[in-house]
Amino acid sequence: MRFVREFRDGAAAAALARQIAAEVDPARDYHLMEFCGGHTHAIFRYGVQDLLPANIHLVHGPGCPVCVLAIPRLDLAIELAQRPDVTLVSYGDMLRVPASRRRSLLKARARGADVRMVYSALEALDIARAEPGRQVVFFAIGFETTTPATAVLIQQAQRLGLANLSVYCNHVLTPSAIQSILDSPEVRALGRVRVDGFIGPSHVSTVIGSRPYEYFAEEYHKPVVISGFEPLDVLQSIRLLVRQLNEGRAEVENEFTRGVSREGNVKAQALVADVFELRPQFEWRGLGHVAYSGLRIKSDYAAFDAERRFDLHEKPVPENKACQCPAIIRGVKKPTDCAIFGTVCTPRNPIGSCMVSSEGACAAYYKYRWRKPAAAAHDEAAA
Amino acid sequence: MCLAVPVRVVEIFPDGNATVDIGGVRTRVSLALVDGVAVGEYVIVHAGFAINRLDVAEAEKSLALFAEIAATLGGPRALRS
Questions:
Q1: What is the ipTM score, two decimals?
Q2: Which of A21, A273, A310, B53 has the fewest C-beta atoms lying within 10 Å of its C-beta?
Q3: Max Cα–Cα distance, chain A, nearest Å
């Protein structure tokens, strides 16, 4: 695959790692948060952490849309799917995520609910047209990468006058989540999480541009480097962050120049602004209620809002006490700090969302890191 | 969820969709979010939508930089490519 394979070159990765090792200041530590779960998986899959000096610490951030969806919101999706007149259409990531009382969309489907998995939001349009007798609801989740597609779906549904299609909107915003992390007591007052700089998401930024991060560089004095998802991208971004921290700079730099500009995709932004507006607050798993962090459908498109059509209201549910997902999402704990990680909670039998999603930190640890190589374990024991 | 892939545009249809090629696999995506895409260009695709162009010149620049670093600081391969 062109423009994928070349960014995984082993010789260049080794050279970049050597350069990072030469540039780090051994007298200090570097705590870098990769916001996006895609980066977490790239880091584990390619063993990036093992190429880095011991004083560079990677902190896993909340950028996994499946993981941060609050359980009451997922409960509502299951409630919708169980209505006999509803066909619930969802991206595959959501189907196995545990809701309250160990339910999931997949289990609901096994009990007869009409839940269908799609790759593109526009497939919901085809289903609604083909089956006019069904109430087709698109379960929309995701950060800014995914939101424009939902905007296109709603506009097309309006153009076609599709009365049997609606959208259950759970779209969330990356900058709000970064701000919530920076303002959290763990980072600000308690000092339990240290974040010196951010590895910024590339595909989200393809849409929103690099400009929204300038606020964090200026107001919080944290450098941000927008990074591609391949191992060379991640290594180069770490090198740029180390350099900024060494020189006392806090700027927004863009490593993913092949897909991100300062302005982003203006057309996609305009579509999103036409269809959606900010919610005064939205609940995130791990972060709690965050002001202006989620989107809802504007009143111009109210006819397509599933929350209005089906009069949906969230009901608070207690978290599973054993599951450490909320603390893991905030970067306060690592998956291996969770008592049920890898024993009770596995990808086959997930208790928390972080173990389900292909972007969740627990899934990354389980898949690539859980069983440490004997040599690394020996080094740690000796240290 | 937010992962996207670079693909080459093979054919563009009047309805705003395109056939794209990724490593020999062809699929249909929507170009509704990106104006003026031409056949042969690379776009970044996520969940059935091109979300932006892939700037080939910038990609080549990054690769040239990595090649230069590898040439000056080269050594045994630490990763499988």
A1: 0.90
A2: A273
A3: 68
CA A156-A159-A162 angle, to 5 degrees, is 80
Optimal mutation site among B1, B60, B63, interface A, most CBs of chain A within 10 A: B1
Q: CA separation (Å) from A180 to A15, A186, A221, A252, A263?
A: 36, 11, 15, 19, 23
Which residue of chain B comes nearest to A207, CA vs CA?
B51
B12 forms beta bridges with B18
d(CA A148, CA A383): 49
CB–CB contact A204 B5 (8 Å):
no
Residue B37's SS3 state is coil
Summarised one tens digit per residue, pLDDT across range A205-250 is 999 999 999 999 999 999 999 999 999 999 999 999 999 999 999 9
Q: Is A351 left (phi over 0), alpha (psi -120 to 50) or beta?
A: alpha
E runs forming strands in chain A? 30-36, 56-63, 86-91, 114-118, 135-142, 165-171, 197-200, 224-226, 252-254, 276-278, 281-284, 288-291, 295-297
What span, in angstroms and rounded, lies between the C-alpha atoms of A270 and A273?
Answer: 5
- Tell the residue number behind the tokens 């497939």, with chain if given: A123
Tell me how far apart the alpha carbons of residues A309 and A291 are, in angstroms, rounded to a whole number: 25
Tens-digit pLDDT profile for residues A162-171: 999 999 999 9
Q: Residue B77: pLDDT above 80?
A: no
The residue among B81 and A47 whose pLDDT is bigger is A47
Cβ(A228)–Cβ(A202) below 8 Å: yes
Which residue in the set B56, B65, B75 is minimally distant from A14, CB to CB? B75
What is the identity of the amino acid at B51? Answer: I
Q: Which two tokens stand for residue A118?
A: 């799609």
Looking up tokens 């932006």 gives B52
**Digit-coded pLDDT (tens) for A289-331:** 999 999 999 999 999 999 999 999 999 998 888 999 888 988 8
Q: Give the Å distances, CA to CA, from A358 to A97, A120, B71.
A: 11, 18, 35
| Residue appearing with tokens 């990074």 | A227
Distance of CA A58 to the CA centre of its chain: 16
Q: Cα–Cα distance between A96 and A355 in angstroms, integer?
A: 10
User: Is the CB of B51 inside 8 Å of chain A's CB atoms?
Assistant: yes
Buried b (16+ CB within 10 A) or exposed e, A286-318: bbeebeebbbbbeeebebbbbbebbebeeeeee
Inter-chain residue contact A265 with B2, CB threshold 8 Å: no
DSSP A100: G
All residue ranges of chain A with pLDDT < 50 are 373-379, 382-383
